[in-house]
């Protein structure tokens, strides 16, 4: 029988797992189980994006109306979502990365505003719009007040006093002159905050860094590529598919010193299991996009990392797309839930990768349990080899027709599905313990891909491929689907076609609803069991933000940022017209300009007369 983690049980296990931790960490655990607040970018440490609030439910969501709105003052892609702590909402923006604290008890009056002064030269080295995926919150703890933590575009990690907006400390996490930028949401565990780095299209060497909440000092740093010592990998103790990775597991898969400019960015989401004391995150594409220039598996790009939260030491690694030939970054979120596979319960990790395969792994051991396509259009590989006795166990079986390396440099490989932006990009899925289903916003997009030789120069694009994108052929004609997924069976339960990619993060609630947004700007609510559409409302701009919910004054509210942009909307956001610009996205999404325009707004919804679901 499937074992389900309830909200209360999860909170209890988290507290037990944190015995001896700082007061701040225990307070954050307590806060996580309060559905009136939204205290982490993805809702909880397990990345469920689920709420036990049910005053807005499938019976009354059709009566939902906008309650209030707030203009951010910025006209670029608005990814991520606000946080709600007590009676304060914290709202972030794209570059210049403004943070607002809004008073929910006083009509959203601005309590404070933080606007950093950044060098605009960082904008040209942000590959896919000037997005930012949100702020983190840390309760008051050992030597520091309550903090709101922001990863600025210029790689400055800044901790703000949550009550006043004053800078408590800042740390420099990278160098934009080398193409390093900050777009990720920081992540707080115990007395540390973790932050990754963007810049795979500039030959940046990816890494995850932990900083002290007390003073911003670096605690540990784990690179995605390179020597074991710099990767915080133990050749004998760190495993991959159950076996020790061995000495120089990364170095032996790169030619010469290529690993130094090898990519493996870490700009996606992080999750945490307090019982195992492990954090989980993914590394992105290897550099360059021309696979002929980097022979080998290019480890450990395209990899799920399970690391000790205190030391950063890798417990296990799993590379999903060895020697990536298509830019299928592996940075998407890891969702932690109990999943039954073939009648056996597992503490599982579920990951919807850009490469079009959904993976279910045992999060304690790294054992691969399920790997199935979550879009029928995926064609670059026939399957992931699940035969443990096979030499290719755990690897995708690549189709030569769609291999950009097999076809060679300066050859246009056509009809590859998915496109480089993947079957799902950074837009996070949701998990409901009520239905035991995962709700996944997807891209239904294919591409033509022509690699060419490129030289590395620090701070200059290191891409080496020309792309064009278009809807998956022989399908419904649109570029997206919103699906419900059974992670134990590896099956789509239901699927809703969308005209454009679904670039918004999903939200599931105990009210039997799943929310998501569309690139045209609609906020939609659907029945969690059937997918039946229950509500939609068009906001002022396309939605690439993530839906969240909270309670104030006894009422439930649903909030979402709208503001077209991101990779899919880069043509509108940056005013680009060349079809091949935006790494191929401009042509693919050209018709989006007929449906929406630039904006930057938070819209908050409610149902006037609320009663909890029965």
UniProtKB/TrEMBL annotation:
Residues of the Pyrrolo-quinoline quinone repeat domain: 38-392, 503-558
UniProt KW keywords: Calcium, Disulfide bond, Metal-binding, Oxidoreductase, PQQ, Signal
Extent of the signal sequence: 1-24
Active site: 327 (proton acceptor)
Keyword Magnesium: no
CDD domains: PQQ_MDH
S-S pairs: 127-128
SUPFAM superfamilies in UniProt: Quinoprotein alcohol dehydrogenase-like
GO molecular function, one term: oxidoreductase activity, acting on CH-OH group of donors
One Pfam match: PQQ
UniProt-recorded name of the protein: Methanol/ethanol family PQQ-dependent dehydrogenase
């Amino acid at each position: 029988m499937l074992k389900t983690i309830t909200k209360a049980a999860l909170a209890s296990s988290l507290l037990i797992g944190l015995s001896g931790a700082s007061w701040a960490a225990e307070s954050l655990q307590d806060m996580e189980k309060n559905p009136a607040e939204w205290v982490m970018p993805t809702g909880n440490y397990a990345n469920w994006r689920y709420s036990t609030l049910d005053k807005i439910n499938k019976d009354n969501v059709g009566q939902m109306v906008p309650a209030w709105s707030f203009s951010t003052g910025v006209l670029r892609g608005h990814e991520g979502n606000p946080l709600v702590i007590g009676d304060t909402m914290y709202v972030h923006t794209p570059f210049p990365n403004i943070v607002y604290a809004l008073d929910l008890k006083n009509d959203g009056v601005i309590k404070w505003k933080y606007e950093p002064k950044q060098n605009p030269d960082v904008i040209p080295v942000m590959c896919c719009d000037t997005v930012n995926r949100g702020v983190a919150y840390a309760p008051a703890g050992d030597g520091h007040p309550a903090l709101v933590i922001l990863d600025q575009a210029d790689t400055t990690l800044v901790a703000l006093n949550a009550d006043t907006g004053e800078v408590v400390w800042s740390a420099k996490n990278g160098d934009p002159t080398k193409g390093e930028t900050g777009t990720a949401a920081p992540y707080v565990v115990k007395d540390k905050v973790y932050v990754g780095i963007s810049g795979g299209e500039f030959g940046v060497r990816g890494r995850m860094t932990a900083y002290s909440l007390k003073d911003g000092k670096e605690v540990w740093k784990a690179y995605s590529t390179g020597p074991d010592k710099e990767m915080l990998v133990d050749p004998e103790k760190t495993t991959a598919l159950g076996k020790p990775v061995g000495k120089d597991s990364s170095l032996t898969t790169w030619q010469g010193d290529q690993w130094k400019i090898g990519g493996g960015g870490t700009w996606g989401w992080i999750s945490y299991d307090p019982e195992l004391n492990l954090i989980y995150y993914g590394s992105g594409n290897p550099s360059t996009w021309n696979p002929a220039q980097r022979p080998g598996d290019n480890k450990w790009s395209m990899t799920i990392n399970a690391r000790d939260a205190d030391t950063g030491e890798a417990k296990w690694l799993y590379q999903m797309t060895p020697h990536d030939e298509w830019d299928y970054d592996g940075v998407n979120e890891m969702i932690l839930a109990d999943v039954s596979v073939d009648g056996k319960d597992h503490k599982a990790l579920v990951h919807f990768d850009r490469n079009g395969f959904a993976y279910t792994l045992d999060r304690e051991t790294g054992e691969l349990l399920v790997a199935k396509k979550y879009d029928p259009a995926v064609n670059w590989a026939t399957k992931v080899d699940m035969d443990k006795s096979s030499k290719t166990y755990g690897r995708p079986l690549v189709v030569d027709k769609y291999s950009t390396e097999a076809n060679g440099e300066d050859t246009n490989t056509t009809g590859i599905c998915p496109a480089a932006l993947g079957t799902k990009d950074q837009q996070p899925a949701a998990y409901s313990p009520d239905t035991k289903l995962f709700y996944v916003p997807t891209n239904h997009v294919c591409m033509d891909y022509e690699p060419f030789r490129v030289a590395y120069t620090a701070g200059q694009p290191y891409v080496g491929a020309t792309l064009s994108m278009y809807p998956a052929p022989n399908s419904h004609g649109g570029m997206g689907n919103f699906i419900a997924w059974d992670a134990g069976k590896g099956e789509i339960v239901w699927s809703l076609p969308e005209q454009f990619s679904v670039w918004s993060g999903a939200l599931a609630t105990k009210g039997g609803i799943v929310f998501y947004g569309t690139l045209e700007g609609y906020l939609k609510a659907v029945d969690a069991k059937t997918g039946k559409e229950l509500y939609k409302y068009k906001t002022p701009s396309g939605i690439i933000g993530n839906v969240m919910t909270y309670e104030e004054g006894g009422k439930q509210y649903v909030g979402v940022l709208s503001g077209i942009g991101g990779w899919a909307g880069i043509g509108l956001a940056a005013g680009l017209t060349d079809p091949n610009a935006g790494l191929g996205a401009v042509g693919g999404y050209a018709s989006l300009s007929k449906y929406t325009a630039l904006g930057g707004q938070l819209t908050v919804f409610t149902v006037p007369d609320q009663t909890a679901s029965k």
